[in-house]
Amino acid sequence: MSFNKDSDNDLIKNSETMSTLSHIRNSMGEVLELDYFGKNGLSTYALKQAKTATRRYQTSIEIELIAQGCLNSEAHFRTLAAELELDYQDEINPASIIKSASIDVLLKRRGPLRLDCGSNNITLVSPTIAEFIRLQELFETKPELRASFAITTPELIREAVWRLDSHARAEKTIDELPQNYPHMSAKYLLTSLQSFIIGVFVASFFVFVFLEPDLLFNGLHVVLSVMYLSFSLLKLSAGFFPIANAPKIRSHPNEEDLPTYTILIALYKEAPIAAQLIKAMTRLKWPTSKLDIKLICEDDDYETITALKACALGPQFEIVIVPDIQPKTKPKALQYAMHGTRGDFIAVYDAEDQPNPNQLLEAYDWFRASGGDLACMQAPLVILNTSSGWLQALFGLEYSGLFRRLIPLLAHYGLPIPLGGTSNHFRKSALLAAGGWDPCNVTEDADLGIRLYRMGYRTGALRRPTLEHAPSTIDIWIKQRTRWLKGWIQTWLVLMRHSVKLANSVGFVGFITMQILVAGMLIAILAHPFAFVFIAYTLSQITTHQFANIATTDLAFMGVDIFNLIGGYLIFVFVGWRAFIPHERKSIKRRWLLLPPLYWILMSFAGWRALSQLPRKLQLWEKTPHEPMSKTKRLKRH
């Protein structure tokens, strides 16, 4: 991206000019606003409400009137333009913008935009009332300056800046993590050293296959069995971890010190649930004037963009268009939108999410009461459609055990937490310090959670949930799980690039927990069908009267495999069932609880499918389609 140094100076000079015109939001500015809007027909009641909110949230009468829906932004600035006898611009050509190195600051806060209009340059402004009055005074004494100004809305300025050099911004987005933390980026699957080690391992494997097959088999069996068992025992311990009651909300939407909260929602082909999403976001208990909700869409997704615009979005919403540059992933979209985030805290939701209205308040309470090392709060994800079928029921059990038992256990003991892909609440400063999301990792949530831990940050667990639907078909479930497991493999390979350094930095307990959570889970999934094969082989030897030929170690391994399999199924059901609330238990048929073996076979198939995609389709993002929720449960039941 190239910049004009002279235009930088122009922007600085113009900003200085505008700052001299501005009465910084003080009591005099409030009086001017009340007087102006009173004369222009705003009701006394609306002005009184806006005045109260202005003092409470340290904003302005104008911002609060727009937030309350009493004032239309476009109509307001058209009126200001007419009164100042200035042109109003309802469209901004990005090609006419005078570039500057600091221009992206206009994505985050209000300010002037310089345009090259051929014969002269124009300063495009969205003045406050105080600035409007100062401009009136300026033009009375120097009317010739009118030709150098025009008016538009802050929204149109942001939209134009987003479109300016968007491809260059997207390319910068992709390179941010690889440049800042190259050893933590999944841009490349393997380092040279890892490729060498894997090559040596594969060669050694085939050597042992021919020379010492029994030693190889027994050695691998021990390692895999221990990792499998460790993962199961960690989950079992979570089943006994008590669930605390949801904490009382100390904050209230009317408190003065509430900061701006940014919400990022990456969307692709989500037109059918656009209206549902907007309704869910408007239910959040947070001042509208302090919300910055970014609906992040790909530039070729016309249907979703059209559907969102048809929802008559409130002032807290902004559609951000991401250029069509590979990799086309959710983390790339989130990282791209970070360039314009205005909040001190950031939440990430998915298109189908129905978060508890108090979730932002609970997260903020934790951040406010904790030190700066608390970087993230993970909300539990609760599956609504567990009654739809066995697949959805077991998906609900899995989520219940993970988000309401295992993650709270890990958070309580300060252990690493692979995040879920949604309902993460971040302290923005910590998120930026950690490098944000990795655009090249297709399970960006787990990767980011581990990276935050590696950098010395903590993750906590919320109690107020987000409601979701499980995939409706096995085909959709397989594709979704393939993407997740592919990303987990990426995450483990990134972790193990400097394993000794990692162990030294996070300590023995942290390192072992990471191995159990990531490698243990992958081994449990990938090795699952081989346990059946070995058990079947040993049993066939017994049934054909060749028991005497069976080695004691084989019998021992068979016992461990049976324990791992049956114990794994029982733990899967036990932990999830323990975390279910009564109405969830009533929603599923008891015979579905006998189907974890089938669920795990499908999971293993997805795991091997993920492994096969690594060489050819490393960053393939198989989209999970969503449908509107037919029946939404009451959030307070959770």
Helix-strand layout with pairing:
Blueprint: H1 5-21, H2 27-39, H3 44-57, H4 61-67, H5 73-84, E1 87-88, E2 113-116, E3 121-125, H6 129-141, E4 149-151, H7 154-163, H8 166-180, H9 192-211, H10 213-239, E5 261-267, H11 274-282, E6 291-298, H12 302-309, E7 317-322, H13 330-337, E8 345-349, E9 354-355, H14 359-369, E10 374-378, E11 381-383, H15 390-412, E12 424-427, H16 428-433, H17 444-454, E13 458-461, E14 466-468, H18 474-495, H19 499-526, H20 528-543, H21 552-579, H22 582-587, H23 596-613
Parallel strand pairs: 1-4, 3-4, 5-6, 5-8, 6-7, 10-13, 11-14
Antiparallel strand pairs: 2-3, 8-12, 9-14, 10-12
Q: Approximately what portion of the residues adopt beta-strand conformation?
A: 5-15%
Q: Report helical residue fraction.
A: 40-55%
- Overall structural class, as computed from helix and strand content, comes to alpha/beta
Regions with pLDDT < 50 over 5+ consecutive residues?
1-26, 631-637
Taking all residues together, what is the mean pLDDT? 88
User: Would you count the extended β strands for me?
Assistant: 14
* Spatial sequence of strands, sheet with the most strands: 7-6-5-8-12-10-13
CA-based gyration radius: 28 Å
Shape: elongated
The main sheet comes to: 7 strands, mixed
Structure annotation, total helices:
23
- N/C terminus separation: 49 Å
